[in-house]
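At this stage, I put together one protein's amino acid sequence and its backbone structure tokens, which the following lines show:
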Amino acid sequence: MLKSLSVKAGLLATLWMGMTISAYAAPTGTDVLNAYMQAWSEKSPEQRQKLLGKIVTDSVRYSDQFNQVKSKAALSEMIGALQGQIPGLRGEIIGPVRFLETAALFEWKIYNEAGEVLFYGVDAVQFAEDGRLQRIDGFMNVGLK
């Protein structure tokens, strides 16, 4: 029995020692989506573009019932234009994010500077192989109230 325990302990030690822990952890899908919602609050066009550069592909496709854009730059401009119309605009994911392979579905709310909900809805997104968003389809004023 002692020999059996020492063999098991040796196997566990070998497995443990063989594991490598990276100093850099790749962002999760949830991290990417939270950063995407943060981009809706970023007022500086340069900072917003930098943030989007980390979380969306250059040829990201965004569509909702009012807008269709086909690039990271166009998405940043669209967000900036909406911020110009709605001072203090900020977005927030509400509830759990639902993941399925390379896709996700989540509910969100958009607030003004007074904290009033202006829009709510659901986004369906598709991730590229590198984990960034490559497609975002927004459905406004559905789901939450």
